[in-house]
Structure formats: C-alpha cells, structure tokens
C-alpha cells in the first residue's frame, strides 16, 4: 500500500517536471521564431542559425517527453539550452550582451530536475552552466575569432532583443516555479484532507468494532457474573474464573487499541476531577489481588500518610497507569528462576520536588539496557518476552507514557536483567485538599513480625500517625509467644498465608496457634479459601498481597471498638439497596435494549439486585411504556432501531417540560466506549451512562446513585 503511494507520488513529480518543460518550451519556441523574423528583417542569416540549436533541442525535448522518456527529454532540453547560450556568447559581439542569457540558465537545473531524487543530473547541468559561463568570462566573446554580427546591429537590435527574451524566459521560469509551489500546496492540502479522512475512517471503524465486540461481550461478562453468584463446584468456579479472565483480557486489548487510536488522532483527553488518590491506588491493587495470587506473586503497597486526601486528577486514567505498571510487574515476576515468589511493591509518596511520585518495582525478569530506549514505543516487546510468550500487545507502556505526559509528568525506568525493574511515575500535585482520615489509637500497640515481604513495615508511618506504637518481632514464633499474654491495648498481626517467609504453619486461628481467645489477633492471609472458612469461625482475617490501609484501619477500629467511619474501598455492598427494595416495594425500572441476549442479561442483573423491570426492545416502545406512568428510572441502550436512546431521551424531556412532569432519571448503557459518547448522553438530557459490558457492581452503583436522587427529590 505504502510503496504504491510512493510510486504514485514519484510518477506525479516526474509528470510535473515534464509538464514544466512542455509549457516553457512554448516560450522558447516563440522567442526563437521572433529571432528568425528579426534575422529575415535584418537579412542576417547568422542570427537565425544561432537560434537553431535552441529550437531543435526544445522540439526534440518535447517529442521525447511525449514519447514518455521524461528524464532524457529534460537532459536534452538542458544540454541544448546551455549549448545555444554558449554558442551565442562566442559568436555575438559583447555589445549584444549575450552573457545575460546565463540568468535564464541559472534557474534551469532547479526547474528541470527534482532536488533529492535527481541530484546527479541537477549537479551536472549546474556545473555545465558554470563551466560555460566561466569559459565565456575568461576567454572573452571573440576567443574563436571575430564576432559574426556587426557591432551596430548588435547594439541596436540584439541587445534589446536579448534583454526582452531574458525577461520573457525568466518570467516564464518564475511563473512555472509559482505554479509548482501552488500545485504542491494544493496537493499537500488534498493529502492532508485525505489523511484526516482516513484517520477518521479508522477511528469510526475502531468505534464500530468496539461497539460490535462489546455488545456480545456484555452477554458473556454479564452472564458469567450472574453464574458466579450461584452455587458452583470448585471445578465450575475454576472454569468461570477462566472465562472471566479471558473476557477481561479481550476487553483490555480493545481498550488499548482504542486508546492508541485516540493518541494517534490527538484526541486523548483527561477528565480532571477531585480524586481521592488513596482509593485509586487501593482499588488498582485490589483489582490485581487475584492476578498476583494466580501468578505466585506477593503484592505490597506502601503509602505516605502525609499525602493529601484529594488532588485534581483523572481517576480513571491514574488507575489505568497504575494497573498497567502493576500488571506488567506481576506478569514479568511470575516465573522466578529459583522458584521464589515474585515480589511487587507499589510505593506512593512525594518526589524530591514535592510532586506525587509512585514506583512499581518487581524482582522479575528485568529489561535489557538496549531495549529500554524503545520500551515506550507501541507494539514493542523485548526478545525475552516474545520468546517466552508472556502475552500482551505491547501497547500498555506506550499508553502509560502518553497519559503521564498529559498529566504533566514523566515516567522513568531502572532495570537490570534478571534482577527486576522499577518504574517511577511523577506528576505535579494540583489542588491538594485534606488529609487522610486516621482514627486515634493513643495508648494502643500494633505488633507484627519483621517481615519485609508482606508490606507491613510500610504501615509503620500510618500506625504512628494514629498515635499508636508499631512494634515488630524478629520471628513469628516470638510474636505468638508475646500474644500469650493478653493485653487489651495490643493487637497482634500474624501472617498465615502461603507467602514466602511465612514458614510451615499456614493455618489460621487462635486454636491453631495456641493463642488465648482473649488476645486481640489479626491473621493475615492471601488464601481466599482459608479466608472464607475461618471468617465464619469468627476469626479476624485481613487479606494480604496486598494489605489495604483502609482495610487495616477498619479492622483496628473494629477491634478497639472505636467510633470511626468505614474506610475500606471494598465495603460497598448491595444490602442498602436491597433493603430499600424490600421496604417500599422497590423503584420501578423501565429498560430499553434491542439485543435479545443483552435483554436477558439486564433482566438477570436487575433481578440479582432485587428489581423487577419492564424490558422493551426499542425507544418507541419505551416511550409508550413511560407515558403510561409508574416508572422511576429508565435504563436505555443508545443505538436501537426506530427510536434510539438519544431520541427517546429528547422525547421524554420535551414532554416533561411541556406537561410540567417530574424528571425521570435516564441512564444510558452504551457499547460505544469512545470518549465523547458520555458527553453526548449528558448533552441530550440523560443523567448518567454505563459502558458495556456492564458489571453488576457498576449497575448497582448507578442505580443506587440515582435512586438516592429520586428519594431526595420525592422527599423534598
Ligand atoms: P505488553 O506487556 O502488553 O507486552 P507493554 O507496553 O506494557 O506491553 O510492555 C512492553 C514491553 O516492555 C513488554 O513486552 C516487556 O518486554 C517490557 N516490560 C514492561 N514492563 C516490564 C517489567 N516490569 N519487567 C520486564 N519487562 C517489562
């Protein structure tokens, strides 16, 4: 494709130069004919003879050009031009000023040959002109004998004639240059327009492709989530988990491709808002908990409590950067040569400059120095990664570097092959507000093991920030021994998971460790099974790999029975919504979705969340149903036959305005993930939007948000 374009361009350039010759030749032919007329009038056949080579050369060049021998045509044209001027200089008296014809020749090579592609011919013609001019200047007009035309005729007729001819030819040359430049500009503009059209077509194609893939993926992801909540055997759970992981991987590839196309189109924009940074980092780390566990990697997090609670940032993009770096670190630390567990640490704090700085370091395969240069280029993967088939598209880091740049920051890498890598991102803190909420634990002691692996030492600052003492024991055995003495003001944190450094005993519970029931103890585990079984037995267990600060704070607050609002990012639950449903019969939901599978998914999801909904196939039916009344909220697909989601919203908002009706919240469920679609939804009067595939959690959050609003409106 590209070579074809280059070939076309080359052909175009050649044909432009040939056209120039043909056009300029007309000027030369007319000049030659005028000279012949003058020769006839003065009865000086010599003058007519001198124009001979120019006329012959020009006609020959035109014929060669028409015979599609453009380079030969142009070479002949130039050669005969130089020959004519040289002959004229050596045969005419100096009174005829024949040297000024060199002015015409000087522009000739540049007009005739393309700089860059035909440099040899250009230089040859230029040198021939220069040699001819030097010869004339050094040797003089009369070097080969007395001039053929007498002085008087030369002064009276030839000098003004030569001047006029030079003017005409230079005029033609300049005009041709002008036409060339203009043609180039027009062509440039046309190709720019074409490139823009092609880029738009590519974006449209990607948007359409994304839409087409997202629609069935909504069926897969939605139903898998529903299935996950039912009773399953271990084998079935494993299968479901694989389907879920594969769907997520597929979606993330689509996201990356869309992002790359946004970057290429210069349309990557940030949505800045007040962002609770700890939550963004904790959610990212929490999302990868299972991924880390499946890859035998311990994930830890270190957060500086001095950081502001809120900054102005794009939370979605910050999460994307963190997820990209963390998932790479986990992926490339999985197969440790000595069979050790991989270690990935996320450290968030201030840089020396006072910017926000976070580092993702791992002890994985590392990156060769020669690859670091192209690390942030799209589709680049190191040879080792390609050889061992780690998967991935090679787009993640290219997107990360663009996003960090958008945030006004930078990303740096340090790595040693076989020893691991460390990616550091820095960007300015804008609009810092508040401090992290910490409970007052004055007089309390938190005791743990000196274990650099689980990231607990990172919490020293936090614990001390709560005015408590952070005490560490050399070994877990020493800690367990200390826990034998019950003290209401001390909490013992005992690591029990399968992490490195934990030792043989991985079981959880006071009984297993022979610790008195009264001793306040938190068990750390990265095993979900242990977690589920033992939590039922009344033990306090905290998920390690990573340990979340908010979860630790909540646990400590619970143990010491303090009054403090819940912090843990994972504490959102569907209970409040379900309770509301049970109390008041539940809000009435109307849903419009044209895809039959997605109708089933949406109905099942709403059922899971405790709602029954009226689900219709298009906007027209939805409008009819809404007009019948009794609808508290509408969920609508954007693209539907007959009346789409946008039109439906317009119709509803219009009728509400005309008849003074209460506003029904409308939430779009769109498969078009391109930026701008959300804005479009809000612009037509919708109240929010969800992207397909819609998770149960996202749907719950959106419904909760809008039902709260409905509640407050009706209460008001
Ligand atoms: P992907 O991971 O999808 O291949 P990325 O753009 O995220 O694409 O990464 C590009 C390449 O950079 C990877 O294929 C790998 O060769 C290298 N790389 C990135 N992060 C790490 C890391 N933590 N350790 C080793 N190599 C890495």
Walk me through the structure.
It is a single chain. Helix 16 links the parallel strand 12 and strand 13. The two termini are 65 Å apart. The longest helix has 78 residues, at 151-228. The chain is 54% helix and 14% strand. It is an alpha/beta fold. The chain folds into 5 domains: 10-195, no CATH class; 217-262, Helix Hairpins; 273-435, Heat Shock Protein 90 (2-Layer Sandwich); 445-559, 3-Layer(aba) Sandwich (Rossmann fold), CATH 3.40.50.2300; 589-709, Rossmann fold (3-Layer(aba) Sandwich). It has a 5-stranded mixed sheet with strand order 2-4-5-7-6. A 5-stranded parallel sheet has the order 10-9-11-12-13, sandwiched between helices. The chain binds adenosine-5'-diphosphate. The site of adenosine-5'-diphosphate has 22 residues, from helix 10 and helix 13.
List keywords for this structure.
716 residues; alpha/beta; Helix Hairpins; Heat Shock Protein 90; 5 domains; five-stranded mixed sheet; five-stranded parallel sheet; 18 strands; elongated; disordered C terminus; binds adenosine-5'-diphosphate
The count of domains is 5
- Which regions contain 5 or more consecutive residues with pLDDT less than 50? 571-584, 710-716
Number of helical regions? 23
Q: Note the gap between the termini.
A: 65 Å
Helical content (DSSP H or I, runs of 4+): 40-55%
**How much of the residues is beta strand, in percent?**
5-15%
């Amino acid at each position: 494709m590209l070579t074809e374009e280059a070939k076309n361009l080359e052909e175009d350039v050649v044909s432009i130069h040939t056209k120039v010759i043909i056009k300029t030749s007309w000027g030369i032919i007319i000049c030659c004919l005028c000279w012949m007329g003058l020769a006839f009038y003065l009865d000086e056949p010599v003058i007519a003879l001198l124009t001979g080579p120019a006329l012959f050369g020009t006609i020959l060049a035109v014929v060669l050009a028409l015979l599609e021998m453009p380079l030969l045509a142009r070479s002949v044209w130039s050669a005969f031009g130089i020959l004519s001027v040289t002959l004229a200089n050596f045969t005419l008296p100096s009174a005829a000023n024949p040297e000024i014809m060199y002015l015409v020749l000087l522009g000739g090579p540049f007009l005739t040959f393309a700089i860059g592609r035909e440099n040899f011919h250009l230089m040859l013609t230029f040198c021939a002109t220069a040699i001819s001019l030097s010869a004339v200047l050094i040797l003089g007009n009369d070097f080969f004998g007395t001039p053929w035309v007498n002085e008087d005729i030369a002064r009276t007729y030839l000098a003004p004639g030569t001047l006029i001819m030079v003017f005409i030819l230079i005029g033609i040359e300049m005009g041709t240059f002008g036409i060339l430049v203009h043609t180039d500009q027009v062509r440039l503009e046309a190709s720019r327009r074409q490139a823009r059209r092609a880029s738009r077509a590519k974006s449209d194609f990607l948007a359409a492709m994304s839409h087409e893939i997202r629609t069935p993926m909504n069926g897969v992801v939605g139903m898998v989530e529903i299935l996950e909540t039912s009773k399953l055997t271990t084998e079935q759970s494993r299968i479901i988990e694989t389907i879920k992981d594969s769907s997520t991987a597929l979606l993330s590839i689509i996201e990356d491709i869309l992002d790359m196309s946004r970057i290429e189109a210069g349309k990557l924009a940030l949505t800045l808002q007040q962002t609770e940074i700890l939550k963004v980092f904790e959610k990212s780390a929490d999302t990868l908990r299972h991924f880390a566990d499946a890859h035998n990697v311990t994930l830890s997090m270190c957060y500086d409590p001095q950081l502001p609670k809120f900054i102005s940032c794009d939370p979605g993009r910050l999460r994307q950067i963190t997820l990209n770096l963390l998932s790479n670190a986990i992926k490339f630390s999985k197969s440790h040569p000595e069979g050790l567990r991989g270690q990935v640490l996320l450290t968030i704090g201030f840089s020396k400059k006072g910017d926000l700085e976070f580092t993702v370091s791992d002890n994985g395969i590392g990156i060769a120095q020669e690859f670091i240069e192209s690390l942030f280029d799209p589709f680049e993967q190191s040879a080792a990664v390609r050889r061992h088939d780690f998967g991935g598209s090679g787009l993640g880091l290219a997107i990360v570097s663009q996003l960090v740049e958008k945030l006004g920051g930078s990303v740096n890498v340090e790595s040693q092959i076989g020893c691991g890598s460390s990616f550091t991102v820095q960007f300015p803190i804008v609009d810092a507000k508040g401090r992290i909420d910490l409970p007052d634990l004055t007089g309390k002691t938190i005791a743990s093991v000196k274990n650099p692996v689980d990231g607990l030492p990172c919490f020293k600052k936090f614990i001390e920030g709560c005015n408590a003492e952070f005490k560490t024991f050399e070994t877990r055995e020493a800690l367990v021994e200390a826990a034998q003495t019950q003290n209401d003001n001390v909490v013992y944190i005992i690591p029990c998971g399968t992490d490195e450094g934990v030792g043989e005993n991985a079981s959880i519970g006071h009984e297993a460790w022979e610790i008195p029931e009264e001793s306040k103890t938190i068990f750390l585990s990265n095993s979900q099974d242990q977690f589920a079984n033992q939590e039922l037995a009344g033990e306090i267990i905290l998920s390690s790999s990573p340990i979340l600060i908010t979860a630790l704070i909540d646990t400590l607050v619970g143990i010491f029975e303090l009054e403090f609002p819940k912090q843990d990012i994972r504490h959102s639950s569907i209970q409040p919504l379900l309770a509301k449903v049970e109390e008041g019969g539940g809000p009435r939901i109307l849903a419009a979705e044209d895809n039959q599978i997605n109708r089933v998914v949406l109905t099942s999801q709403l059922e899971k969340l405790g709602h029954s909904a009226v689900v219709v196939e298009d906007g027209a039916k939805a409008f009819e149903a809404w007009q019948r009344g009794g609808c508290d909220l509408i969920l609508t697909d954007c693209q539907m036959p007959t009346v789409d989601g946008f039109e439906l919203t317009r119709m509803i908002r219009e009728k509400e305005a005309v008849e003074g009706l209460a506003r029904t919240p409308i939430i779009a469920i769109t498969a078009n993930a391109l930026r701008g679609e959300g804005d479009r939804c809000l612009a037509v009067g919708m109240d929010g939007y969800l992207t397909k595939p819609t998770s149960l959690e996202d749907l719950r959050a959106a419904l909760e948000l809008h039902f709260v609003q409905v509640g407050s409106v009706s209460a008001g």
